[in-house]
Amino acid sequence: MGRSISLLFAKEGAGVAVLDLNEAAAKMVAKESGKDTSHVTAVRVDVSSSKEVNAAVQAILARWGRIDILVNCAAIHRDERFVDGDEEMWDLLMAVNLKGTFLPTKAVLPAMIEQRYGRIINFASASGKVGSAREVVYSATKGGVIAFTKALAREVARYGININVICPGPIETPMLLE
Amino acid sequence: MVNDIDEAPAMEAVKEIRNSGGEAVACVADISKSEEARKIIDTAVEKFGRLDILVNNAGITRSAPVDTMTDEQWDTCVDVNLKGTFNCIRAASRFMMKPEHGGRIINISSVDALIGPAGQLNYNAAKAGIIALTKTMAREWAKYDVACNAVALGWVHTRMSGEMESGEAVFGQTMGIPKKLRDKLLERGGFKIMTPEDAAKPILFLASADAAFITGILLNVSGGMHI
Question: Considering A3, A39, B37, B185, which has the largest number of Cβ atoms within 10 A of its Cβ?
Answer without folding.
Answer: B37
